[in-house]
Amino acid sequence: MGVDVNLAKKWVNFMYLEKIKIKNFKKIIKLETELNKNINIFIGNNAQGKTSILESIYVLALTKPSKSVEESDLINKSSNFSLIKGTLVNEKSKKEMEFILTNQQKTLKINKKEIKKVGDYLTNLNVIMFSPDDLDIIKKSPLVRRNLLNIELCQLFPNYMKVLNEYNKILKIRNEYLRKNYGNMDKAYFDIITEKLVDRLIIIRNYRQKYVECINSKIEIIYKRIMKTGNLKVVYDKNISFESKEEIINYYKDNYYNELDKKMTLFGIQKDDLLFYVDDMNLKDYGSQGQQRVAVLSFKLAEINIFKETKKTYPIVLLDDIFSELDIEKRNNLLKFIKSNIQFIITTTDIKNISEKIVEKASIFKIKDGKENLFMYGYLTSNLYIRPSCGDCDFKGIPRQSDITLADFWGIESKLDDDKGTSLVLINNKKGKALFNRIENNIISYKRNFSEIFEKNVCFNSSVEIPPESEKFLRELSYKPFSKVLSKYDRIFKLKKLDNSSLITSS
C-alpha cells in the first residue's frame, strides 16, 4: 500500500492575507497592497509606520491593539475614523474582513455583513505577533502574561471567550456586592454568586492548564534549537491551588470576612500567573535579557504549532523588527522556523538582518512616512526604470577616466544614513585628491577600502541587467498612471536574487 504524500497538505489548511487596505490607522493615512502568501518584508527607518502595518493586521484579527492603549488613539489625528480591510484566503474559501473604528463605535464585518458578536468574528483570522516589547511578558506584572494566555485561547476556542466574559461579569457583580453591602449582606445570594464564579473558574483554569501542558511539550526543544543550551519550562501558577469545586467554594467561605473587609474578591483566575524557568532558575528574577527574549520567542513559536494541531491551520506570523534584537547565531536559528505554508509579515530597518535565502522568496515593500513607496519598490526590485544606456555602460570598471567619481553609496552603514542619501566619492588621481582636500573640512567623510565599495556597489564593475519588459513599461508610462503600470509589471517581476545592501537606500 502506497503512502499518500498529500495527506499533510490536506490536513493543514493554508491560510493567508491576500490583500490589505488601511486608512487613517495610527501613522498610516492610506495604504493598499497585495501580499505574498509566504514572506513579506516591510523596510523603513524608525517612526515611518512599519509597526502600524503589523498592528493593523493584529487589530483586524483580534479587534483590539496588542498594547494597552485607548482605541481612540488608533485613529490618525487627521481623521475621525479608521478602516482596516483584509482579504483572507484559505483552501476552502475567501473572506473579506473589515474593521471600522470611530470615536462612537466599532464595526466588524465579514463579506460586508456586520458581525454583532465578537466571538463569531475572532476565530477567522489567527495571528501571532512578535515584537521587541515581548520582554514585558516576563519582566512586567502577571496581568501581561494572563492577557497573553487569554488572547491565544480566545483565538483557539470560542467557548473560552464566552466563559471568560461570563466570569468577568460575575466577578464585577461580586465585587460590587462586597463593596456596597457591608453589614447588610444577603449571605445566601452571595453564595450563589460565588458558586457561579467557581463554575467558570474551573472551566477557564482547565483550558489554561492544558494549554500550558501543550506549550511545555514543545518549548524545550525550540529553546535549545535557538540558544543551544538550557532547559526551558513554563509553570502555570494558580492563585487557588485546590482542584475540586467543593474545595474551592470552601476556600472562599474560609476567606469570607477577609474579602468583606477588603471589599473585593481576593482570589481567582484573575490572579493567576505564568512563570518561566530555565534549569530551575526563574527568568524574571535571575535570567539575562538574552535568555528572557529567547524564552518568549520559544513560547510563541510553540504557539504556532498548537494552532496547527488545534485548528488544522497555521496562524499568520507578524515579526516586528525583532531581528535587530538578536545576535547573528540566534537570528539564523530563528529563521529556520520560517516555513513555506505559513505567511510571515516582517518589518526591519535593515534587510541585512535577514538571510539572503529568505529575502529571495519575499515580496519587499519600502515604507516612508506611513506609505508604501512605489517608486523605490519598482526601482530596487526590478530595474524597470533604468535607462537603456545603463545596461551597456562604457564607463564601468577600473581605472576610472575622471579625476573624481561621485555616486550613491548603496548599503552604507546606518550612522551615515539620514534617509537623505549618502554619497560615495572615488578619488582617481592626484588632481582629484587635491580637489577633495579643498572641501574635506566642510563635510563629514570616512575612508573605506575598495573591497567594501565594490561588494556593495556592484555596478562599478558591471552594467545593470535591464529586463526585456522595461521598454514596454516606459512606453506605457507615457499614457497610464504610474501605480497602474507598476502593478501590471510587478506581476511579471519576482525577486530572483537581491543584493541585500541595495534595498537600504533613501527615498
Describe it.
The chain is α+β, with helices and mostly antiparallel strands and 507 residues long. It has 3 domains: 1-126 and 313-349 and 361-366, Rossmann fold; 137-311, RecF/RecN/SMC, N-terminal domain (Glutathione S-transferase Yfyf (Class Pi), Chain A, domain 2), CATH 1.20.1050; 394-462, no CATH class. Helix content is 41%, strand content 18%. It has helices at residues 7-11, 50-62, 118-122, 136-139, 142-156, 158-180, 187-227, 245-254, 256-262, 283-286, 289-311, 328-335, 356-361, 374-382, 430-439, 450-456, 470-476, 482-490; strands at residues 16-25, 28-34, 39-43, 81-89, 94-102, 106-110, 113-114, 127-130, 232-237, 273-278, 281-282, 316-320, 344-348, 363-368, 371-372, 404-408, 423-427. α6 crosses α7 (187-227), α7 (187-227) packs across α8 (245-254) and α7 (187-227) packs across α11 (289-311). The longest helix is centred in the middle third of the chain and has 41 residues, at 187-227.
- Beta strands, count: 17
N-to-C CA distance: 59 Å
Count of individual domains: 3
The CATH top-level class label of the largest domain: Mainly Alpha
